[in-house]
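Note to self: keep these together.
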Amino acid sequence: MTNVKTLSEINQYTSQSVNPMDYPDKYYELYSVPSYDNDYPEIIQGKEIGSTKVTVEDNDVLICKINPRINRVWVVKHRTDYQLLASSEWIIVRNPEINPNYLKHYFSSPSFRMLINSQVAGIGGSLTRAQPKQVAKYPVPLPSRKEQDEITIIFDEIDELISLRKKQLQKLDDLVKSRFVEMFGDPVSNPKEWETVPLSNEADIKIGPFGSLLHKEDYIVGGHALVNPSHIVSGKIVPDHELTVSDEKYAELAVYHLKVGDVVLGRRGEMGRCAVVEQEGLLCGTGSLIIRSKGDLRADFIQKIISFPSFKETIEEMAVGQTMPNLNVPIVSAFQIIKPPKKTQDQYYDFVDKMMRTKTITQQGLNKLEQMKQALMQKYFGGKE
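Structure:
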């Protein structure tokens, strides 16, 4: 029979604060908050850690409490002889009688995620972090230690398989990137001496709507998502479904609709941030531009050129603005784009298509593993996503 206790009932962690500046000759290893698109903490080593932190030990379980990284979970493992520290973004759980990896899997489960996310989503969604005193009241199912170990083995094995599939997908992406460089070279130095043309020759370019066309009261939840620079992450569009507009407003701004096959480019902040549009119903935001190919160059090819490291550096030099770099239609129109012969482009995309077929099969395997994991979490931990 599985016992259920609250998090506060099982947690034996006692906070011990340390200010590394008081011990200038001591080395530390700090577990800091994960980056937005990472499941793992940032681990910082050295002397100059800065302000007061708390000590942690091997097998302590760290639960990130900062939105939107909330519910990233980590088990501390000593990698050096340095003193281990954690930043204030973590809820720390310690109990040597409980398998820490069992706790990690439970804290990563849909049932626990639903609890912690519902708290942050409360009060109009205004909270930016989970409140430890509230989280301390949450239930933790505790089967026998033998059962904890067995459940942990199951999830560790499936996580290993999921990790392997993700690595395979990353290798396929890396192969495509390597093939691009091999066939076309650096698009700025142009060692293969391809023809170069202004981007305006190959694409229609349009800036997003002026701010006067969109007001705070126009934004709703669950409508047509806007794509601003912050919604372009690692070459993909990551919509915010809480920053959307109604069907009526979307229709009113028809000239700013993003079409499948467009390239959407952030025009301020980080230069070269762009993505190919892969779904209908999105709206270009005020901080973005639309690049629509006239046909000779694929959208994917344009995206790869603009996001290439050396090309991004070139864009930074072309951007205007004292406090924040900005792009406009004349600047983007003047981008010099390499234009290899269509036959060469087709050879590259034949290779890409083969990689995509392999990637589709690998992704299907990954999806099945993740579905299996969700079913097992439902079985052992209950709750719904």
